[in-house]
Amino acid sequence: MGSLKQVRLTVLGSGTSVGVPTLGCQCRVCQSDDPRDKRLRPSVHIECDGFSILIDTAPDLRQQALRAGIRRIDAILYTHAHADHILGLDDVRPFNYHQKGPIPIYATAETVEVIRRCFAYIFDQAESESSRPKLEVHLIDERPFTVGPLTFQPIPLWHGRGRSHGFRFGRVAYLTDHSEIPAESKQLLHGLDVLFLDALRKRPHPTHSTLEQALRIVEELRPKRAYLTHICHELGHEETERELPQNVRLAYDGLQLIVPMAEGDHE
Questions:
Q1: Which of 154, 164, 237, 250 could form a disulfide with 36 if both were Cys (CB 3.0 to 4.6 A apart)?
Q2: Strands laid side by side in the 51-55 sheet
Q3: pLDDT, tens digit, for every residue of 29-53?
């Protein structure tokens, strides 16, 4: 089995693209006093052997990093290039300063193309009087890749007519922003201790999974534990959890999981 690692996963944001509370909304969930109903844009932080990894840079990254006490970022993985997953990228500048070097980012060519277009100033070779993020770009495809102590298996997903990627590392998989999981991707998701899934709401949506669809995936893949994320203001935390199987919970901002991980797991 090799030596046993421990991975700490922190949910930085569990909300949909506009967050919860939603601007201008007076619904019951947006006015809720339950802190689990306060949802920033979707992202998670992974720590293992002192190595610090982000999945996505949400627009709320500064607030998320302060709240979670993140002191360094050793790498960033991107699921796809929608605004709620990339627009916090500029907030890595202080980490560049303190770490005195570039931060590696891992993304598909399509995602990197959008990031380059949205953040053209980052990649401009001309001298600048102001600071800008310093990045080291690594292109990924569907093959496993290693970041620090962990090996990540990209999981191709359908996001409406577009594509996104989840990531499996050891016996944990983080999937967000998916309307469908292809059959070949499901083959990469067996034997999990922890599975994160998109579950936007109960009503159908063209680019996201519903609560019912997510529960069907859990029944099919049978992880030990499942957490639902990318949640909109139509799902109140406490009342929704009462409807769920015991091994399925709603993710919430600040949720932390400690997952043992033997070297060689799914490498």
A1: 237
A2: 135-139, 103-107, 75-77, 51-55, 43-48, 4-13, 256-262
A3: 999 999 999 999 999 999 999 999 9
Query: Residue 176 gets which letter from DSSP?
Result: -
User: Whole-angstrom Cα distance, residue 228 to residue 202?
Assistant: 12
Q: What is the CATH number of domain 4-262?
A: 3.60.15.10
Strand ordering across the sheet containing 150-159: 145-147, 150-159, 162-169, 172-174, 194-198, 225-229, 248-250
Q: How confident is the model at residue 266 (pLDDT cuts 50, 70, 90)?
A: very low
> Tokens standing for 86?
């990339």
pLDDT digits (tens, 9 = 90+) for 122-144: 999 888 778 999 999 999 999 99
- In 3D, which of 145, 139, 83 has the Cα closest to residue 108? 139
Looking at residue 263, what is its pLDDT? Answer: 58
Domain boundaries, the chain: 4-262
Judge whether residue 9 has pLDDT over 50.
Answer: yes
What distance lies between CA 86 and its chain's CA centroid?
11
Residue 163 has pLDDT above 50, yes or no: yes
Dump strand ranges (E) for 192-236.
194-198, 225-229
N residues, the chain: 267
